[in-house]
């Protein structure tokens, strides 16, 4: 909390934008190899922002229950899918590092596939968070 305002809603938008943009960069780096480093940096920055957003969610649970009447199950589902997306993007990041070092295109393709899965998980986590606030 910062002056009574929960930080979580303020922090979540950075990893969403960065990680989805990193997924696009991975896709375009299949054709333009020079984008791989930019994708790697964007993915790393998005992961750091995602960890900050994830950790800030703990302090927001009571606020969500009292202000939005969010159920414990809804909060836990949102939290789990956010964690699953971070794990997926972490795996994508590791695969991209291996690709960067070995230059095997198959690792880049696997990194992209895992990032697309992570994007779906991230979108669903965001959807669950939005349902708690706007439903």
Structural commentary:
The protein has one domain (8-134). Helix content is 82%, strand content 0%. It has six helices and no strands. It has helices at 8-11, 13-29, 36-56, 61-68, 72-102, 105-134. Helix 2 (13-29) packs antiparallel against helix 3 and helix 2 runs antiparallel to helix 6. It is elongated, with a radius of gyration of 16 Å. Keywords: Membrane, Transmembrane, Transmembrane helix.
Outline the secondary-structure elements.
Layout (H helix, E strand, L loop, with lengths): L7 H4 L1 H17 L6 H21 L4 H8 L3 H31 L2 H30 L1
Organism: Exiguobacterium oxidotolerans
Protein name: DUF2231 domain-containing protein
InterPro entries: DUF2231_TM
Based on Cα principal axes, name the global outline. elongated
Strand content: under 5%
Mean pLDDT: 93
Query: So how many helices?
Result: 6
What is the domain tally? Answer: 1
Query: Using DSSP, what is the number of strands?
Result: 0
Q: Strand count, sense and closure of the main sheet?
A: none
Helix content, binned percent: over 70%
User: What structural class is derived from the secondary structure elements?
Assistant: mainly alpha
Q: What ranges have pLDDT less than 50 throughout 5 or more consecutive residues? A: none
Q: How far is the first residue's CA from the last residue's CA?
A: 23 Å
SSE topology string: HHHHHH
Rounded to the nearest angstrom, the radius of gyration is 16 Å
Pfam families: DUF2231 (PF09990)
Protein name: DUF2231 domain-containing protein
Keywords: Membrane, Transmembrane, Transmembrane helix
InterPro entries: DUF2231_TM
């Amino acid at each position: 909390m910062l002056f009574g305002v929960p930080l979580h809603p303020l922090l979540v938008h950075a990893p969403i934008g960065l990680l989805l943009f990193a997924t696009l960069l991975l896709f375009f780096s299949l054709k333009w190899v020079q984008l791989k480093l930019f994708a790697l940096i964007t993915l790393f920055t998005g992961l750091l922002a995602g960890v900050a957003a994830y950790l800030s969610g703990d302090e927001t649970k009571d606020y969500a229950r009292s202000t939005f009447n969010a159920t414990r199950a809804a909060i836990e589902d949102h939290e789990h899918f956010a964690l699953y997306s971070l794990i997926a993007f972490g795996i994508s990041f590791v695969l991209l590092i291996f690709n960067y070092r070995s230059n095997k295109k198959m690792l880049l393709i696997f990194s992209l596939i895992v990032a697309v899965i992570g994007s779906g998980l991230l979108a669903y986590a965001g959807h669950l968070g939005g349902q708690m606030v706007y439903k």
